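Review session, final week

We close the course with one last complete record, chosen because it touches almost every idea we covered. It is Glycerophosphoryl diester phosphodiesterase, a protein from Enterococcus innesii with 249 residues. Go through it on your own first, then we will talk.
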Amino acid sequence: MMVQIVAHRGSSGNRPENTLPAFAEAVRVKADIIELDVHLSKDGGLIVMHDETVDRTTNGKGRICDLTVAELKELNAGSWFSEEFQAAKVPTLKEVLDLLAAKNYRGILTIELKTDHYEYEGIEAKVSDLLNSQEWPFTHWYCSFNIETLDRMHAIEPDAILDFIMGRGEDKPPLALSRPYIEGIHPAYRWVQETATVLTDFPIAIRPWTVNEEAAIRTCLALGLTGIITDFPENARAIVQQVREETKG
Protein backbone atom coordinates (compact mmCIF):
# COMPACT_ATOMS: atom_id res chain seq x y z
CA MET A 1 0.00 0.00 0.00
CA MET A 2 2.12 2.84 -1.30
CA VAL A 3 0.56 6.29 -1.24
CA GLN A 4 2.35 9.63 -1.46
CA ILE A 5 1.67 12.02 1.42
CA VAL A 6 1.67 15.56 0.03
CA ALA A 7 2.09 18.35 2.61
CA HIS A 8 -0.35 21.03 1.44
CA ARG A 9 1.35 24.44 1.69
CA GLY A 10 3.71 22.69 4.06
CA SER A 11 2.32 21.20 7.25
CA SER A 12 -0.40 23.83 7.16
CA GLY A 13 -2.74 22.23 9.68
CA ASN A 14 -0.44 23.00 12.60
CA ARG A 15 1.80 25.76 11.19
CA PRO A 16 0.98 28.96 9.26
CA GLU A 17 0.64 27.90 5.62
CA ASN A 18 3.39 28.60 3.10
CA THR A 19 5.88 29.76 5.74
CA LEU A 20 9.28 28.41 6.68
CA PRO A 21 7.91 26.84 9.90
CA ALA A 22 5.31 24.92 7.84
CA PHE A 23 7.94 23.63 5.44
CA ALA A 24 10.35 22.71 8.23
CA GLU A 25 7.60 20.71 9.92
CA ALA A 26 6.78 18.94 6.65
CA VAL A 27 10.42 17.86 6.42
CA ARG A 28 10.41 16.71 10.04
CA VAL A 29 7.39 14.45 9.53
CA LYS A 30 8.92 13.03 6.34
CA ALA A 31 6.29 14.16 3.86
CA ASP A 32 6.89 12.44 0.53
CA ILE A 33 5.99 15.63 -1.34
CA ILE A 34 5.86 19.24 -0.19
CA GLU A 35 3.53 21.58 -2.08
CA LEU A 36 3.75 25.36 -2.24
CA ASP A 37 2.36 28.27 -4.30
CA VAL A 38 4.34 30.93 -6.18
CA HIS A 39 3.43 34.45 -7.38
CA LEU A 40 5.44 37.36 -8.76
CA SER A 41 5.89 40.56 -6.75
CA LYS A 42 5.81 44.04 -8.27
CA ASP A 43 9.58 43.92 -8.72
CA GLY A 44 9.69 40.38 -10.09
CA GLY A 45 10.39 38.44 -6.92
CA LEU A 46 9.17 34.85 -6.62
CA ILE A 47 6.86 34.96 -3.59
CA VAL A 48 5.46 31.93 -1.76
CA MET A 49 1.83 32.51 -0.76
CA HIS A 50 -1.48 30.94 -1.70
CA ASP A 51 -3.79 33.90 -2.30
CA GLU A 52 -3.27 36.64 -4.86
CA THR A 53 -3.56 39.15 -2.01
CA VAL A 54 -1.81 39.29 1.36
CA ASP A 55 -5.02 40.07 3.25
CA ARG A 56 -5.89 36.64 4.66
CA THR A 57 -2.50 35.41 5.88
CA THR A 58 -0.65 38.57 6.88
CA ASN A 59 -1.28 41.84 8.70
CA GLY A 60 -1.16 43.71 5.39
CA LYS A 61 -3.50 44.55 2.54
CA GLY A 62 -3.17 44.45 -1.21
CA ARG A 63 -2.18 42.30 -4.16
CA ILE A 64 1.20 40.59 -4.25
CA CYS A 65 1.75 41.94 -7.76
CA ASP A 66 1.40 45.51 -6.42
CA LEU A 67 3.96 45.08 -3.61
CA THR A 68 7.74 44.84 -3.75
CA VAL A 69 9.73 42.11 -2.05
CA ALA A 70 10.88 44.63 0.55
CA GLU A 71 7.28 45.63 1.30
CA LEU A 72 6.20 42.00 1.55
CA LYS A 73 9.08 41.29 3.93
CA GLU A 74 7.72 43.90 6.35
CA LEU A 75 4.56 41.86 6.87
CA ASN A 76 3.79 39.41 9.66
CA ALA A 77 2.79 36.07 8.13
CA GLY A 78 2.28 34.02 11.29
CA SER A 79 0.23 35.84 13.92
CA TRP A 80 -3.07 35.23 12.06
CA PHE A 81 -2.49 31.53 12.80
CA SER A 82 -1.02 31.76 16.30
CA GLU A 83 1.04 34.22 18.32
CA GLU A 84 3.60 31.42 18.58
CA PHE A 85 4.52 32.20 14.97
CA GLN A 86 4.56 35.99 15.10
CA ALA A 87 8.12 36.01 13.77
CA ALA A 88 7.15 34.24 10.53
CA LYS A 89 7.66 36.29 7.37
CA VAL A 90 6.47 35.94 3.79
CA PRO A 91 9.13 33.71 2.18
CA THR A 92 10.63 33.96 -1.25
CA LEU A 93 10.94 30.75 -3.25
CA LYS A 94 14.72 30.89 -2.88
CA GLU A 95 14.41 31.00 0.90
CA VAL A 96 12.24 27.87 0.86
CA LEU A 97 14.67 26.06 -1.43
CA ASP A 98 17.56 26.99 0.84
CA LEU A 99 15.66 25.74 3.90
CA LEU A 100 14.89 22.39 2.28
CA ALA A 101 18.50 22.07 1.15
CA ALA A 102 19.81 22.92 4.64
CA LYS A 103 17.56 20.20 6.07
CA ASN A 104 18.70 17.79 3.35
CA TYR A 105 15.13 17.13 2.24
CA ARG A 106 15.19 14.13 -0.09
CA GLY A 107 11.57 14.09 -1.20
CA ILE A 108 9.73 15.99 -3.91
CA LEU A 109 8.90 19.69 -3.99
CA THR A 110 5.89 20.47 -6.17
CA ILE A 111 5.55 24.13 -7.09
CA GLU A 112 2.13 25.47 -7.98
CA LEU A 113 2.39 28.33 -10.44
CA LYS A 114 -0.50 30.62 -9.44
CA THR A 115 -1.44 31.87 -12.87
CA ASP A 116 -5.14 31.07 -12.81
CA HIS A 117 -6.06 34.68 -11.87
CA TYR A 118 -3.04 36.68 -13.08
CA GLU A 119 -0.78 35.57 -15.90
CA TYR A 120 2.45 36.84 -14.23
CA GLU A 121 4.32 37.15 -17.50
CA GLY A 122 7.57 35.20 -17.46
CA ILE A 123 6.95 33.38 -14.17
CA GLU A 124 7.52 29.97 -15.73
CA ALA A 125 11.02 30.87 -16.96
CA LYS A 126 11.91 32.58 -13.66
CA VAL A 127 10.92 29.55 -11.60
CA SER A 128 12.66 27.11 -13.93
CA ASP A 129 15.85 29.19 -13.98
CA LEU A 130 15.96 29.21 -10.17
CA LEU A 131 15.28 25.50 -9.79
CA ASN A 132 17.95 24.67 -12.34
CA SER A 133 20.52 27.17 -11.07
CA GLN A 134 22.14 24.55 -8.81
CA GLU A 135 21.84 20.99 -7.57
CA TRP A 136 19.27 20.39 -4.82
CA PRO A 137 18.90 17.28 -2.64
CA PHE A 138 15.21 17.07 -3.55
CA THR A 139 13.36 16.54 -6.83
CA HIS A 140 11.14 19.32 -8.18
CA TRP A 141 7.83 19.10 -10.01
CA TYR A 142 5.40 21.78 -11.24
CA CYS A 143 1.62 22.05 -11.14
CA SER A 144 -1.03 24.61 -12.03
CA PHE A 145 -4.74 25.21 -12.60
CA ASN A 146 -3.70 26.95 -15.82
CA ILE A 147 -3.13 24.44 -18.61
CA GLU A 148 -1.33 27.07 -20.69
CA THR A 149 1.20 27.53 -17.89
CA LEU A 150 1.89 23.80 -18.03
CA ASP A 151 2.28 24.05 -21.81
CA ARG A 152 4.81 26.85 -21.37
CA MET A 153 6.68 25.02 -18.62
CA HIS A 154 6.89 21.89 -20.77
CA ALA A 155 8.44 23.95 -23.58
CA ILE A 156 10.97 25.46 -21.15
CA GLU A 157 11.76 22.31 -19.17
CA PRO A 158 10.71 19.31 -21.28
CA ASP A 159 11.75 16.67 -18.75
CA ALA A 160 9.89 18.20 -15.80
CA ILE A 161 7.05 16.31 -14.13
CA LEU A 162 3.85 18.35 -14.57
CA ASP A 163 0.45 17.97 -12.88
CA PHE A 164 -2.88 19.63 -13.68
CA ILE A 165 -4.85 20.95 -10.72
CA MET A 166 -8.63 20.94 -11.03
CA GLY A 167 -11.83 21.22 -9.07
CA ARG A 168 -14.80 19.07 -10.07
CA GLY A 169 -15.26 20.05 -13.74
CA GLU A 170 -15.89 17.15 -16.10
CA ASP A 171 -14.05 18.99 -18.89
CA LYS A 172 -10.77 19.10 -16.99
CA PRO A 173 -9.54 15.46 -17.09
CA PRO A 174 -9.69 15.35 -20.92
CA LEU A 175 -7.47 18.44 -21.00
CA ALA A 176 -4.85 16.62 -18.96
CA LEU A 177 -5.20 13.39 -20.91
CA SER A 178 -4.76 15.24 -24.21
CA ARG A 179 -1.20 16.15 -23.20
CA PRO A 180 1.09 13.13 -22.89
CA TYR A 181 3.59 15.08 -20.79
CA ILE A 182 1.13 15.57 -17.89
CA GLU A 183 1.93 13.03 -15.19
CA GLY A 184 -1.24 13.38 -13.14
CA ILE A 185 -4.20 15.41 -11.92
CA HIS A 186 -4.80 17.03 -8.55
CA PRO A 187 -8.61 17.21 -8.26
CA ALA A 188 -10.84 18.39 -5.46
CA TYR A 189 -11.68 15.43 -3.20
CA ARG A 190 -15.36 15.84 -4.10
CA TRP A 191 -14.48 14.85 -7.69
CA VAL A 192 -13.01 11.61 -6.36
CA GLN A 193 -16.23 10.91 -4.48
CA GLU A 194 -18.36 11.61 -7.54
CA THR A 195 -16.27 9.52 -9.97
CA ALA A 196 -15.02 6.73 -7.69
CA THR A 197 -16.43 3.94 -9.84
CA VAL A 198 -14.17 4.76 -12.80
CA LEU A 199 -10.95 5.70 -11.01
CA THR A 200 -9.33 2.28 -10.83
CA ASP A 201 -8.59 2.42 -14.56
CA PHE A 202 -7.68 6.09 -14.77
CA PRO A 203 -4.51 6.26 -16.91
CA ILE A 204 -2.56 8.92 -15.00
CA ALA A 205 -1.81 9.68 -11.34
CA ILE A 206 -4.52 11.10 -9.06
CA ARG A 207 -3.70 13.10 -5.92
CA PRO A 208 -6.83 14.81 -4.51
CA TRP A 209 -6.99 17.87 -2.29
CA THR A 210 -7.58 18.55 0.54
CA VAL A 211 -7.81 15.20 2.34
CA ASN A 212 -7.73 15.66 6.11
CA GLU A 213 -10.40 13.40 7.60
CA GLU A 214 -9.67 9.75 8.38
CA ALA A 215 -12.67 8.51 6.38
CA ALA A 216 -11.48 10.41 3.29
CA ILE A 217 -7.93 9.08 3.67
CA ARG A 218 -9.26 5.54 3.92
CA THR A 219 -11.38 6.07 0.80
CA CYS A 220 -8.33 7.22 -1.16
CA LEU A 221 -6.38 4.19 0.01
CA ALA A 222 -9.21 1.83 -0.93
CA LEU A 223 -9.32 3.35 -4.41
CA GLY A 224 -5.57 2.91 -4.83
CA LEU A 225 -4.92 6.58 -5.58
CA THR A 226 -1.34 7.70 -6.14
CA GLY A 227 -1.31 10.25 -3.33
CA ILE A 228 -3.28 12.53 -1.05
CA ILE A 229 -2.79 16.24 -0.51
CA THR A 230 -3.31 17.02 3.16
CA ASP A 231 -2.89 19.81 5.70
CA PHE A 232 -1.86 17.23 8.33
CA PRO A 233 0.88 15.04 6.82
CA GLU A 234 1.94 13.50 10.13
CA ASN A 235 -1.62 12.46 10.95
CA ALA A 236 -2.17 11.14 7.43
CA ARG A 237 0.98 9.04 7.70
CA ALA A 238 -0.26 7.53 10.97
CA ILE A 239 -3.62 6.62 9.42
CA VAL A 240 -1.92 5.02 6.41
CA GLN A 241 0.25 2.96 8.76
CA GLN A 242 -2.83 1.94 10.76
CA VAL A 243 -4.57 0.74 7.59
CA ARG A 244 -1.47 -1.23 6.59
CA GLU A 245 -1.44 -3.00 9.96
CA GLU A 246 -5.17 -3.74 9.69
CA THR A 247 -4.61 -5.21 6.23
CA LYS A 248 -1.79 -7.43 7.49
CA GLY A 249 -3.95 -8.60 10.38
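Two points worth writing down before the exam:
The domain at 4-36+94-248 is CATH 3.20.20.190 (TIM Barrel).
The first strand starts at residue 4 and ends at 7.
Good luck, everyone.
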